[in-house]
Amino acid sequence: DTAEYVAYVAKDPVNQRACHILECPDAMAQDVISSIGQAFELRFKQYLKNPPKLVTPHD
């Protein structure tokens, strides 16, 4: 049996980072990478349609 691995680093809301490692049996690493890429692309398109509103302090 051959296992492949996918690793990525993610940042949480308090700016700490963690490395996540996924073991992908049966040569599924490419499928996992493609799925993660599609999720990021979809979220970016949503962001472009509704960018966050800038908050300005009141003087």
From TrEMBL:
GO MF term set: receptor tyrosine kinase binding
Highest rank taxon of the organism: Eukaryota
CC terms in the record's Gene Ontology section: plasma membrane
Residue ranges constituting the PID domain according to the UniProt record: 3-59
SUPFAM superfamilies hit by this protein: PH domain-like
A GO biological-process term: cell surface receptor protein tyrosine kinase signaling pathway
Protein name: PID domain-containing protein
